[in-house]
Specification:
Blueprint: E1 6-11, H1 20-29, E2 33-38, H2 48-55, E3 64-65, E4 68-69, H3 72-78, E5 81-87, H4 89-96, H5 103-110, E6 115-119, H6 123-127, H7 129-140, E7 144-145, E8 149-152, E9 158-162, H8 166-177, E10 187-192, E11 197-200, E12 203-205, H9 212-223, E13 227-232, E14 245-248, H10 252-263, E15 268-271, E16 278-280, E17 299-301, H11 305-312, E18 318-325, H12 329-339, E19 344-349, E20 361-362, E21 364-368, E22 373-375, E23 379-380, H13 381-392
Parallel strand pairs: 1-2, 1-5, 5-6, 6-7, 10-13, 10-15, 13-14, 15-18, 18-19
Antiparallel strand pairs: 3-4, 8-9, 11-12, 16-17, 19-21, 20-23, 21-22
Helix pairs in contact: 1-2, 1-8, 3-5, 4-7, 9-13
The chain binds cytidine-5'-triphosphate (CTP).
Cytidine-5'-triphosphate binds next to α11 and β18.
Length: 394
C-alpha cells in the first residue's frame, strides 16, 4: 500500500529505538523506499548496520560524513513523509524551537509538511507542561503527533509515555499517508456478515457468515480513497481502519432500514451480507420452555433488501450483489443479477474447497450484465476484494 512512497525514518535516542528495525521492515514490506537518519545518540540504542541492511540504504547520522556534506534539503525534498520515531522529549523540544544541531533536525526544518512524530519518554517527562507546550507548538505548525501508549516503561514504572508499537504506527501511516485517490470521489456502501432473527430472548436463527469478505472489501475500497460505510451484522470481525464508518445491525429488518437510509447518497453498493431469508412469525417475549417432543417454528419471509434497492437504483449508481450457490451456479447467479437489477454479481460456489463462509480464503466468479465471466483463483479475502475492484473500476 506504500508502493512508490519515499519515507525518511528519523530515529532519536530513546530505548524504543530498537523497535525501529521492525518498523523499517514493515515499511519496506509495504513497498516504501526508506532512508534512515539517526541522531548521534540513537546509535547507542540500535545498530546502524542492521537498519541499513533492512532499509537497503546507507544510514545517515551527521551533517558531514567522510568529508562530504549530507544534503538535508535534498533529503527533505525526496521524502513524501518524514517519521520521527521514537521522538524523545529532547528532540521534540528542539524541533518545536527550530534548533538544527543534527542532520535529523536540519532535515526536519527543511521539510514543510507531512511530518509525523511518534513520542516516547518517561511519564514525568511526557506530562511535564514544557513537553506538552512543545507538542502544542508542533501541532500548531500542522505536524502530526501520535499519542503515547500506557504500560511498562524503561525506568521500571508503569505509566504513560510508551511508544506505540510498530504495527500501530504502520496502520496510522497507511491510513493517513498511504491511501490512493483512485476512488476518492466515491461513496461506497457495503453490507457484511449475517443477520440474526430472534425466536425468544435467548435464541435466534442465523447463518455461518463471518463478514470477512465484506470487511475486506471495505478496507480495500477505503485504501483506494473511497468514503466507506459498512453496515455490519453481528460478527467479531471489524475493519482495521478508523476512518471506515461502521453501522452495526442485528436483524434483516434493521439492515434494510439502514440500507434504505444510506443508499440515496451512495455511488456504489456491495451487498455482501448473508441476509436471513426468513424470520420467526412471532418472537416469544419469554424463553420458550422445553415441553413436547416436537416444536414447530413458523417462519415468514424477510424483505429482499437488494431487490428493493435494485428497483430504486438511479442511472449513475452501481450495484454489486453476491450469490452463494450449491448447484446450477452460473444459471442461478445470472437469474439473481437480472431479477435484482444488478450491474455485477459475485458468485461463490459451495463446491469450491476453501471458499465461502468462515474461510480466510475465497474463490469467486465475477459476472457482468452481458454475462461475461471473470473467474478468480483461490486467494485471501483481501486479494479477492482487490480482484473484484480491479475488474470493476481499474
Ligand atoms: N439478499 C438481500 N436480502 C435478502 C436476501 C438476500 O439483500 N433477504 C441479497 C444478498 O445480500 C446477496 C443477494 O441478495 O447480495 C443474493 O443472496 P442469496 O442468499 O445468494 O440469494 P437469495 O436471493 O436469498 O435467494 P436463494 O436463497 O433462494 O438462493
Amino acid at each position: 500500500m506504500l508502493e512508490g512512497k519515499n519515507i525518511i525514518l528519523g530515529i532519536t535516542g530513546g530505548i524504543a529505538a530498537y523497535k525501529m528495525t521492525s518498523l523499517t521492515r514493515l515499511l519496506v514490506k509495504e513497498g516504501a523506499s526508506v532512508k534512515i537518519i539517526m541522531s548521534p545518540e540513537a546509535v547507542q540504542f540500535v545498530s546502524p548496520l542492521v537498519l541499513s541492511t533492512l532499509s537497503n540504504n546507507e544510514v545517515l547520522i551527521h551533517l558531514h560524513e567522510n568529508n562530504q556534506w549530507n544534503n538535508h534539503i535534498e533529503l527533505a525534498t525526496w521524502a513524501d513523509l518524514m517519521i520521527i520515531a521514537p521522538a524523545t522529549a529532547n528532540t521534540i523540544a528542539k524541533a518545536a524551537h527550530g534548533l538544527s544541531d543534527s542532520l535529523l533536525l536540519a532535515t526536519f526544518l527543511s521539510k514543510k509538511s507531512n511530518i509525523l512524530f511518534v513520542p516516547a519518554m518517561d511519564e514525568d517527562m511526557w506530562l511535564n507542561p514544557i513537553t506538552q507546550q512543545n507538542i502544542d507548538i508542533l501541532k500548531s505548525f500542522h505536524h502530526d503527533i501520535l499519542p503515547v501508549g500506557e504500560g511498562f516503561l524503561a525506568s521500571g514504572i508503569e505509566g504513560k509515555g510508551r511508544m506505540l508499537e510498530p504495527e500501530e504506527i504502520l496502520l496510522y501511516i497507511k491510513e493517513h499517508y498511504g491511501r490512493s485517490k483512485s476512488l476518492s470521489s466515491k461513496k461506497i456502501l457495503i453490507t457484511a456478515g449475517p443477520t440474526q432473527e430472534s425466536i425468544d430472548p435467548v435464541r435466534f436463527i442465523s447463518n455461518h457468515s463471518s463478514g470477512k469478505m465484506g470487511v475486506a472489501l471495505a478496507e480495500v475500497c477505503y485504501e483506494n480513497g473511497a468514503e466507506v460505510t459498512l453496515i455490519l451484522g453481528p460478527t467479531d470481525v471489524k475493519p482495521i481502519y478508523k476512518g471506515i464508518e461502521v453501522v452495526s445491525v442485528i436483524t434483516a429488518e434493521e439492515m434494510k432500514i439502514t440500507c434504505d437510509e444510506y443508499f440515496k447518497d451512495t455511488n456504489i453498493l456491495f451487498m455482501a451480507a448473508a441476509v436471513a431469508d426468513y424470520k420467526p412469525m412471532t418472537r416469544s417475549s419469554q424463553k420458550i420452555k422445553k415441553k413436547d417432543e416436537e416444536l414447530e417454528l413458523k417462519l415468514c419471509k424477510n424483505d429482499d433488501i437488494l431487490k428493493g434497492l435494485g428497483l430504486k437504483k438511479k442511472e449513475d449508481q452501481v450495484i454489486i450483489g453476491f450469490a452463494l450457490e450449491s448447484e446450477n451456479e452460473i444459471e442461478n447467479a445470472l437469474s439473481k443479477l437480472k431479477s435484482k437489477n444488478l450491474d455485477f454479481i459475485v458468485l461463490n460456489s459451495l463446491k469450491d474447497e476453501g471458499a465461502g463462509f468462515g474461510y480466510e480464503t475465497n474463490q469467486v466468479t465475477l459476472i457482468n450484465k452481458k454475462g461475461d465471466k471473470f473467474p478468480s483463483d483461490l486467494l485471501s479475502k483481501k486479494e479477492i476484494a482487490k480482484f473484484i475492484l480491479s475488474h470493476l473500476f481499474f
